[in-house]
Specification:
By secondary structure, this protein is an alpha/beta fold. The protein contains 11 helices and 14 strands. The strands form 5 sheets. It has a 6-stranded mixed sheet with strand order 11-2-1-14-13-12, sandwiched between helices. Strands 3-4 form a two-stranded antiparallel sheet.
């Protein structure tokens, strides 16, 4: 059977839509299959009650890569991000801890709770900034295979090694610590104020099923220092229209590039022939074929539900 599509993408969440848009911009025929009535996956805004629209799951934006915003021209497709200037942590004793968009005001606020922590706060911020700058160039890098002798992998290793060599020894040491320690342990090294540590540790467990004392959560905390909005480092915000506004902008950019989207089209199985994924069978019985099948679903659902056991090694 001829393949009418170059790629079938299972799942119309934000990751699937980004992949679809880039493939279509490269001249590929792409079809996105989404099981729900709406696109966006975890980044959706839905009208739960008539006239009231709610951000259902994910809520703030900062880690959407600026390269993606620029390449897909998402503002032209409706993306607008409103800055999040401050946070507020209520305390059981009726007091509170606020973080404001004025660094000096934030420092005075911390001083109310701990003069020692107010003095440490700037140094902590500088170190996290340095660590974030050290990690950020790696985020868009295709991980090189150290066992491969291909030119791309060798060049990737050379690039990665050059970046590591550009870092100072204290930064490499601190980066190695951050990759393995917990958010709680990291914050204990810097601060004594429990409300401050508790507030900041939340950034170490967001998007995980871990606790603040789980190893590796210090890096998650660092990862949230790498966000930016319109070139402003460490800035966070809300998408106009909720996080569904991001997905709708991505969908608009994908369609403008030529992507075909089908909603209410749940995948039942990935079709595998001779060890290769060649298509997708839908729950309604339709079979679609393509040169490549891409799943933006979680790995468990992809490999344990959509791929037949005999097709896996």
């Amino acid at each position: 059977m001829p393949n009418p599509y170059d790629a079938l993408i299972i799942g119309g969440g934000h990751n699937g839509l980004v992949a679809a848009a880039y493939l279509a911009r490269a001249g590929k025929q792409v079809l996105v299959l989404e099981r729900r009535h709406d696109l966006g996956g975890a980044a959706v805004t839905e009208e739960i009650y008539p006239g009231f629209r709610y951000t259902v799951f994910s809520y703030v934006v900062s880690l959407l890569r600026p390269e993606i915003i620029r390449d897909l021209d998402l503002p032209r497709h409706g993306l607008a991000i409103l800055p999040l200037p401050s946070t507020f942590t209520p305390l059981p004793n009726g007091d509170y801890l606020a973080a404001l968009d004025d660094p000096e005001a934030t420092r005075r606020e911390i001083y109310r709770h701990s003069p020692r922590d107010a003095e440490a706060y700037d140094a902590y911020g500088r170190q996290m900034y340095r660590m974030a700058r050290a990690v950020k160039p790696i985020l868009n890098m295709v991980p090189p295979d150290p066992t491969s002798l291909s030119l791309d992998d060798l060049l990737g290793l050379l690039k990665l090694g050059g970046h590591a060599a550009s870092l100072e020894a204290p930064d490499l040491y601190n980066l190695a610590k951050l990759m393995t320690m917990s958010a709680a342990d990291l914050l204990d090294e810097w601060f004594e104020c429990e409300p401050l540590k508790g507030t900041k540790s939340a950034s170490g467990i967001t998007g995980t099923f871990l606790g603040p004392r789980s190893p590796g959560t210090a890096y998650v905390l660092l990862h949230h220092y790498m966000g930016e909005i319109d070139g402003v480092f460490r800035a966070w915000g809300f998408a106009r229209g909720g996080t569904g506004g991001i997905s709708q902008a991505l969908a608009s950019a994908a369609r403008a590039a030529g992507v075909e989207v089908r909603t209410e089209a749940p995948a039942a199985q990935v079709i595998v022939k001779n060890g290769r994924a060649v298509g997708v069978a839908l729950e309604n019985g339709d079979e679609l074929h393509a040169r490549y099948v891409i799943s933006s679903l979680d790995p468990k659902r992809t490999f344990l539900q959509l791929v037949a056991p005999e097709a896996l090694d």
